[in-house]
Design a protein that fits this description.
5 strands; 13 helices; two-stranded parallel ribbon; globular; mainly alpha; three-stranded antiparallel β-sheet
């Protein structure tokens, strides 16, 4: 049956349903949660936000400077390619993910009070990471407006098992599971941008580069074109660098860290919305608050700092997306007691969780016929 909002097949709830988040309408509101958060957490400081950008760019510049010594004749090749370059790729990709997150904050208007500043910074940073800033800003806004909705959410919309003929058993096998995970973590992001893979179904081809794509409204088309032009400029610059320093240089210095950034981006966003204890709703049951709470906080250890806490405070981010990241930890602590059982945190290693949940969360289905709440199966 694919994606949609109805299903005829019924699945028995697992023995662990007690860990599921509640699906009843909560006895608190967004206003209740907002009042629990200290007012200063909603204040946006251009100076402070710019400081994070400067720190990330300085870190990336320092890593690049260090990388210029890796290919020196005195450095053994086994050391260069067995340790030094992989270390550079890992940390450059991690810091680049942090830059990605800061540009993402610009799209949410969480960077400063001024939209023109937010968009200028976001367009610059995202374009340097080959992200169509305005295009993704608009589709991502719709994701936040429709999280957890089977019909209207924009990304990582799960398949619905509509009949017993919909067989997902092959995807549970370890070899195929590993293949899908590798493809998702390496090519998932460009596939989403180019062909809307894992996105909401549209009646025609959808992508993030065509101003007339069904993803965008008429008033958003000009900004989509601006994003495209910015990407053309950056790609032209990268081509010029490759002509000057060589394609191997560009591969080692930029392309591999770029792939690492994409890896973290897909892993973070996928695992924020994939957990067997999180519900999805069809249009008869969905509302914004329960949808926004249908996400999970995960820690990436010391990388949380480099990622600007986008993963370990993601529930708060979905509830208050215009809040700067540097207040998210304090805000999360303030709302957890109110959220109670509606708050979900997964303390498992994220790679272990992905391996297990990739099999467990292949499709959604209601526990009982006629139920408008769907669970991963």
């Amino acid at each position: 049956m694919g994606k949609g909002g109805d299903a005829s097949v019924v699945h028995r709830p697992s023995s662990k349903v007690s860990k599921r988040v509640p699906v009843e309408k909560p006895d608190f509101t967004v206003g209740t949660l907002r009042r629990a958060i200290p007012p200063h957490c909603f204040e946006r400081s251009l100076l402070r936000s710019s400081g994070y950008v400067a720190a990330d760019l300085l870190g990336m510049a320092a890593l690049y400077f260090c990388s210029t010594f890796i290919d020196q004749p005195a450095v053994p090749r086994w050391l260069a390619y067995g340790l030094l370059w992989p270390t550079y790729w890992f940390f450059q990709g991690a810091i680049g993910t942090g830059v990605w997150v800061l540009a993402h904050e610009c799209g949410h208007q969480a960077f400063s009070k001024w939209q023109v500043v937010n968009d200028a910074v976001g367009l610059t940073l995202h374009s340097c990471l080959l992200v169509p800033y305005y295009s993704w800003k608009h589709s991502h806004r719709r994701h936040h407006s429709n999280t957890g909705s089977l019909e209207r959410d924009e990304v990582f919309v799960p398949a619905i098992k509509g009949s017993e003929a919909d067989d997902f058993s092959l995807e549970h096998t370890a070899p195929l599971r590993l293949f899908y995970i590798i493809i998702t973590l390496t090519l998932g992001w460009p596939m989403y941008l180019v062909a809307n893979v894992s996105g909401r179904p549209y009646d025609r081809w959808a992508n993030h580069f065509d101003p007339y794509s069904p993803i965008f409204s008429k008033r958003e088309r000009l900004e989509v074109a601006i994003s495209d032009l910015a990407l053309v400029a950056v790609m032209g610059g990268l081509y010029s660098l490759a002509q000057s320093f060589g394609w191997l240089w560009l591969l080692k210095v930029y392309i591999i860290p770029y792939v690492v950034v994409n890896h973290w981006l897909v892993l973070i966003t996928l695992m924020q919305h994939t957990h067997p204890d999180l519900p999805h709703y069809n249009s008869k049951e969905w509302d914004w608050l329960r949808g926004a709470m249908a996400t999970v906080d995960r820690s990436y250890g010391f990388l949380d700092v480099l990622f600007h806490h986008i993963a370990d405070t993601h529930v708060a981010h979905h509830l208050f997306s215009a809040m700067p990241h540097y207040h998210a930890e304090e805000a999360s602590a303030a709302i957890k007691p109110i959220l109670g059982k509606y708050y979900k945190e997964d303390k498992r290693n994220v790679f272990v969780a992905m391996w297990k949940d990739w099999s467990v969360c292949r499709f959604v289905a209601p526990d009982e016929a006629g139920n408008n709440v769907f669970w991963f199966q």
